[in-house]
Amino acid sequence: MNKNGYVLVYALGVITVLMILAASLSNITMNRSIWSNRNVYNIKERTKAISTVEAAASDLALKFDDLNNSSTSYKYLSELSVNFTSYFDIIESNYGVTIRNVSKETCPDQTKPSCYLYTNEYEIIYEAKEFTATKRFFLSMIPSFLYFALGSNSDITFNGGAYIDGDTYVKNNLFLTDVTNYSRNNTLFTQMSNFLTVAPNRSIYIDHSLYSCSKGSVVDCYSINSDNNRFLRNSSNFRQVTDETFYSTTFTNTPPSLMKYSDHFLNVNFDASYQYYLNEATNDHDIDGIDINNISTEINTYITNGWLTPVSSVSDLTDKTGSVVFNSDTVISDHLNYNKDEWIIINGNLTIEEKDIETITIDANILVTGNITITGNIAFDSTIYALGIGNIINAAISGLDTNSLVLLTKENLNFTAINAFRNNFNDHVIYFPNTGLSTVTPHIRGFFYTDANAQVYAAASYIVIEGGLFTNDRNNQSKLPTNINDYDDTYTYVYETNAIGLVINSFRGSVTNDFDFTSSRRVEQSRFVIKHSLDTIRNQPKGLPINTQFNYIFEGVIIK
Known about the structure:
Blueprint: H1 2-70, H2 77-80, H3 82-95, E1 98-101, H4 102-106, E2 119-127, E3 132-140, E4 150-152, E5 156-160, E6 163-165, E7 168-170, E8 174-177, E9 179-184, E10 187-192, E11 197-198, E12 203-206, E13 210-213, E14 222-225, E15 230-233, E16 239-240, H5 243-250, E17 257-259, H6 270-281, H7 299-304, E18 309-311, E19 324-326, E20 330-332, E21 336-337, E22 344-346, E23 350-353, E24 360-363, E25 366-368, E26 372-380, E27 382-386, E28 390-399, E29 405-409, E30 413-416, E31 429-431, E32 437-439, E33 444-450, E34 454-458, E35 463-471, E36 502-506, E37 509-511, E38 517-519, E39 528-532, H8 535-539, E40 551-559
Parallel strand pairs: 4-7, 4-35, 5-8, 5-36, 6-11, 6-39, 7-12, 8-13, 12-17, 18-19, 19-22, 20-23, 21-24, 22-25, 23-26, 24-26, 25-27, 26-28, 27-29, 28-30, 29-33, 30-34, 33-35, 34-36, 35-39
Antiparallel strand pairs: 1-2, 2-3, 3-40, 9-10, 13-16, 14-15, 31-32, 37-38
């Protein structure tokens, strides 16, 4: 009897355990099924979210390309954006996304200089039940020259041992020599030096050919034509070089990357930008049809019509609120501070010089109808356009806080007598090549652009620039010689040379005031040093050249 009872109890226990196991397995199976279904749903939802914002971005990119091909009017980016705001609505409707203008939320009044007139940040947002997919994109009409330490829309010639910490852009041909050219008492000379040195991890973007000539190979890279006082390139002594040859024979340290520029290069239309800001200065009166090269004759009409207020001295600006005009050649030798929503117009030549003050500050935006000359110790927070020549003579140019000078000239730009015969190289330290870093205390801070050509003499001068230097070389752009023998009398050459575009002459070592040269291989004794700065791109001061086109950059999708 007891045995039967134990058997029954045992059987019931086994059955109970089996039922519990069956229930547990069933629960696990059900949970796994629920988890699996949820996971499948999440994967599908995640995939849909990513594919939706990617498809929306693809459609936007096509629209941006169409706008870049059709826009003809030079404007701020905030004005150009009117063309694609309506298309944002279509994209939002078609894909169920939201396009958020991040820049407008952080700076609602985009007519102010403190707002981003040249770059806008957006987000494409798709909200699902479990996920939010976001893809950021940026629209920018910042002119591309600001992204380079040195550049030219035609050629660049590096004579001698300059040091470049930044990328270089060459639309056409690049020429390198190990000599530096200089002028003394209107007589031309050539001095043995070193080749250019480029900081590590920097690139040279070049569309066509690289040519090199080495005086160390017992050849003359230049001859001097005494009849017209010009350096003549001895083309037969320049050889076209490949990347490998370039690396092994030209650079003793880490060479830069050589490549073609693949992004969309936003050029500067100097005349259109100048005219745009002149129109802005006259409270947007329609002066678009005026020949900018004869604009000085129209200034009196603007004054008569009350579009501009005439002033005769810096002290007259104290109680003024709108744009003003100095209606003659002008010398500024004192502090100048004026609202950068407005413009100061110089109808004539402008000289900014420091005489008796340790440093004068120029905190204003200026349009000049003639030449501009800068000399002495000047601290700038300014954008300046000049229709004539730009001369930087014996100047020390600094910035105000993180802002500095942006100077654009229609005619040639010249740097001369900067720290002449100075041989103290302790104000900048170049850690090269071990760390790849440069610490630079600049003599000149700012970005310099010319619509024509530029030449730098740093044989006796000692020039350290933080910023950039670019030549548009408008007279030679359409010719683009592809062979060293293609240059002829139809080209507009840099003064005293048979080169076009940008010419940098730099000695490496010390030089006395009687031009006694002591050569050095030490890169920190380069007499021309330029280090690129991102400050102007970050700050985007009002007055940068406007454009008909823009660049766009899409980032990856972020899932939250």
